[in-house]
Amino acid sequence: MTFQKRGIDPTTGGLTGWVDYVTVWAKVEDLSGRDYFQAQMLGEASLVTSRITVRWRPEIDPHMRVKFGGRFFDIKAILDPDGRRRSMQIMCAEVR
């Protein structure tokens, strides 16, 4: 799985397309049933479709997106499930 961020044009300073930032091992789960109901607490329930779990990486932020095989995900929220900064749960919406 690869985190991507927006590229910046050095001439204009404007945003360009997505560029790969870092590739990591991850667990990707599509939400359904009870997990989907719990995701409603994020306030964007209809948009959250997947949960991605990775080791803690402080440089990851919601302005990035995720590339997983041929699938792409917009990051909606980043959670620290145990408050110890050992792992991150990234709540995402798949971009079709």
Q: What spatial order of strands do you see in the largest sheet?
A: 2-1-5-6-7-4-3
Number of strands: 7
Q: How is the CATH topology named?
A: Thrombin, subunit H
Gross morphology? globular
Give the termini separation.
17 Å
For CATH, the homologous superfamily is named as: Bacteriophage SPP1 head-tail adaptor protein
Instruction: Estimate what percentage of residues fall within beta strands.
Output: over 45%
Task: Write up this protein.
- This protein is mostly beta strands and 96 residues long.
- It has a single domain (2-95), classed as Thrombin, subunit H (Beta Barrel), CATH 2.40.10.
- It has one helix and seven strands.
- The protein has a seven-stranded antiparallel sheet with strand order 2-1-5-6-7-4-3, with no helix packed on it.
- β5 (65-68) and β6 form a beta hairpin.
- The chain is globular and about 45 Å long.
- The model has no long low-confidence stretch (mean pLDDT 87).
